[in-house]
Amino acid sequence: MSNARWTDTGGGEGPLWSFRVGEVEVFPIREVDYFVEPAEFFPQMETESWTDGAFYTREPFTHDGRILLNQEAHLLRTPDRLILVDAGGGNGKPRNGGVFDRADRPFLEQFARAGVSLGDIDTVVFTHLHVDHVGFATGADGRGGWEPTFPNARYLVVREEFDWWTGPEGARAMRRTGDYIADSILPLRDAGVLDLIEADHVLSPQVHLVPAFGHTPGNVYLVVESVGQRALFAGDMLHHGVQLERPEWSIRYCVVPGDSADQRRRLLERAADSGDLLVPAHFPFPAAGHVHRAERGFTYTFLDV
Length: 305
Known about the structure:
Blueprint: E1 7-8, E2 17-21, E3 24-36, H1 38-41, E4 62-63, E5 66-77, E6 82-85, H2 110-113, E7 123-125, E8 138-140, E9 146-148, E10 154-158, H3 159-165, H4 168-173, H5 180-184, H6 186-190, E11 194-197, E12 202-204, E13 207-211, E14 220-226, E15 229-235, H7 242-245, H8 257-274, E16 277-280, E17 289-293, E18 298-302
Parallel strand pairs: 6-7, 7-10, 10-11, 15-16
Antiparallel strand pairs: 1-2, 2-3, 3-5, 4-5, 5-6, 8-9, 12-13, 13-14, 14-15, 17-18
């Protein structure tokens, strides 16, 4: 269960929101909003359509016929740890076009508004290794290469995930985006700060991972539990509200779409039946709320801001 409420922590340009899960304070770190064509994202749209349903209780879910996606990471302040969940698309990284190609966005500047320096963060955990979740893990080193962004952090990735993306199947998958593993993950390994972990890894007394393979071969979601409250950090378990009504819809970039759909339904059922807070990475900002069972699938109620 969760009785979380948003707080405007102030500072900088506009609010930096946070909420608490017991003793753990959560800061969503916003990178960018962007739009994609529905059929490009959901191959099901080639033969099916969705109704104009109320998947969300806040903001339109499309804009000019396109899907609106938010890109955010999450900073967790536990009683004795500072953990970053995923690392966005990054700045200055060459990509094969798209919203993350050679970007220049004020992502890292937001940490200071939470009273945190880059050197304070002790752990960066990746839910999976897609291009939009790893980029700020490294930055330019001034010599034509890349170095860890958070100098005192250990970087954690599930072993199966690392092995797949550094193998031939991962290399084929990255033809679409460009090789982001080379500039965002391998420099961590070379610097000796990358740890390959099990999919049920426990990060702290309040934070642990749950295996949810499908979207990618080592995909996980993250659970924060403290003082009788619990939140589920979904990563890419779901991207858009239509997947609440249609959990069977996996996006085009899921490695094993059927397994991804099964894991998504299990997560939504868990959130609906437990009352746990669900925190996706791509719902409209700031994204945290509760899942409810509906006549078809589920609905989602955002925390009030």
